[in-house]
Amino acid sequence: MPPEAPVFIARDFSPIRTERLLLRAMTLDDTDAVHSYMSDPEVCRYLLHEPRSRQIVAEKIAEWSMSTRLAEVGDYLQLALELHAAGTHTGRVIGHLYFTLKSIDDLAAEIGWTLHPDFEGSGYATEAAESMLAYAFGELGLHRVVAELDPRNAASIALCRRLGMREEALFRDEMWLKGEWSDTGVYAILHAEWSSRHRD
């Protein structure tokens, strides 16, 4: 008999706590913290948008804060990465993580991340993304998660590799962005690949 088709498990998102971070829905109280890095040209260098004003950040957060359920294609999360470990920055939002459902039938999703420059190089993005992959494969029952990025973004490529994601594609001159043609790199990891990396 053929194997039974896998089943997606729709969920309302609940905060995820890691060793040093709390992944949670954003609120308008996060506006200043998020604006502090989303207004930075270097942070936005490889993103799909230019640096944002405080007003635009507030408008985006108001929209993102309403998206807390993963049930249909296109549903997404924009999660604040809040420090909660002991230290002087406890409670500070240092970045955010993006996650969206791309296919229910094929159990596929996309992941992305943005971090304040002051907190790069300390493993925070890896910690957040690892916890989200565990949620995707363990709680949602997904089969495949991809990351789409600018192939000039060496830091994000290194993060993908730390997560066990494989380079699957490079689309040349795929989009007209910020006054030039831009390439898109695609990295991916399957449930089975993630599980093999996390066996006790």
What does this structure look like?
The chain is of the alpha+beta class and 200 residues long. The protein has one domain (13-197): Gcn5-related N-acetyltransferase (GNAT) (Aminopeptidase, 3-Layer(aba) Sandwich), CATH 3.40.630. It has five helices and ten strands; from the N terminus they run E-E-E-H-H-E-E-E-E-H-E-H-E-E-H. It has helices at residues 31-38, 54-64, 124-138, 154-162, 191-197, and strands at residues 11-12, 16-17, 21-25, 69-70, 76-83, 93-103, 108-115, 144-149, 166-177, 180-190. A hairpin with a 4-residue loop joins strand 6 (93-103) and strand 7 (108-115). The longest helix is centred in the middle third of the chain and has 15 residues, at 124-138. It starts with 10 loop residues before the first strand and ends with a helix.
Please describe the structure with a list of short key phrases separated by commas or semicolons.
eight-stranded mixed β-sheet; about 200 residues; alpha+beta; two-stranded antiparallel sheet
The overall strand count is: 10
Structural class, from secondary structure content? alpha+beta
Gross morphology:
globular
Distance between the termini: 31 Å
Counting structural domains, the number is: 1
> Could you say what the CATH architecture is?
3-Layer(aba) Sandwich
Spatial ordering of strands, largest sheet: 2-3-5-6-7-8-10-9
Oligomeric state of the chains present here: single chain
Rg, rounded, reads: 17 Å
In terms of per-residue confidence, which ranges show pLDDT below 50 for 5 or more consecutive residues? none
The level 1 CATH classification is Alpha Beta
CATH topological fold name: Aminopeptidase
SSE string, helices as H and strands as E: EEEHHEEEEHEHEEH
Mean pLDDT: 93
Indicate the proportion of strand residues. 25-35%
